[in-house]
Amino acid sequence: MWVRCALWGARTPAPLRLGLLASWQRHCRAASSYSASADPSRVRALVYGNHGDPVKVVELKNLELAALGGSDVHVRMLAAPINPSDINMIQGNYGILPKLPAVGGNEGVGQVVAVGSSVTGLKPGDWVIPANAGLGTWQTEAVFSKEALIEIPSDIPLQSAATLSVNPCTAYRMLVDFEQLQPGDSVIQNASNSGVGQAVIQIAAALGLRTVNVVRDRPDIQKLTSRLKDLGAEHVITEEELRKPETKNLFKDMPQPRLALNCVGGKSSTELLRHLAPGGTMVTYGGMAKQPVTASVSLLIFKDLKLRGFWLSQWKKYHGSDEFKRLILTLCDLIRQGQLTAPACTEVPLQDYQRALGASMEPFVSSKQILTM
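RESULT FIELD:
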């Protein structure tokens, strides 16, 4: 019998380890205890015992369901996406790494099957999502501690529920926490076709903000441009167009952005900085190019630009579960109002996980892979 719980990676900075340790000690009980089972009718889970290429190290295994304790919740998973953070965690280069062997998946939605004797506020049939990363959502069912779960309304689309707790939360917090933007103000972002990027476009539109959205050039660029504009994007330009002097003409009829959102790094982030208004802020939440953010001295001195970073796991540590629940309910309201939809998704049965993992790591793929149970 082995217990899966959170474990810090060797590369995690010491202050962050100390700062998050208490919350992750509480979270460790969230993951279920399993043993290998020969009964294929029991839990099926995507498990990895070593870090490496997800297609090579992840295996579909049969596991035994843990006993239901008094403070536990038996959950049948409905759907769970494959996010970049999931890939990074399996590769071993994420800020939080679970103890191995581990069940993959940081996000998803499940339905309550049964609750322990001391559990209140949840009942069979309720929908729940993970309260924190590292829960292990790529499995058909599991027993989790109640503290590891957040109830959500079951009247929203399944794909929206499955992709609710990471990308839309990141997008909303970055839009409202770093600059006091008002309706009519503008935001510029790269990786605009990513899950976060699509959420930024929609939430910004709901807040009355205008967006300049940068994407990599690709054969179907017109199709992508049309899809992002259907979501509410005002301008969609390629990385190459961003570097052209003519780009400044965009800001003749709209204010210069006071907020830039960077998920790429390297030259792309430098170009975002160049178009920021004086005193503006660039928030970095990813590094797809695996290149550092480079800011010229002149931009920092003469434009007084600010460079910040954002990580949702750290935000939740500082703000607590109650504020995270309020954020989730705010996003659910936007979903009900038709102002926030799930990113473009491809549903893949759990047994076809290798195809889904491979597709999630392909370049220029704008469709998020969602494992269905």
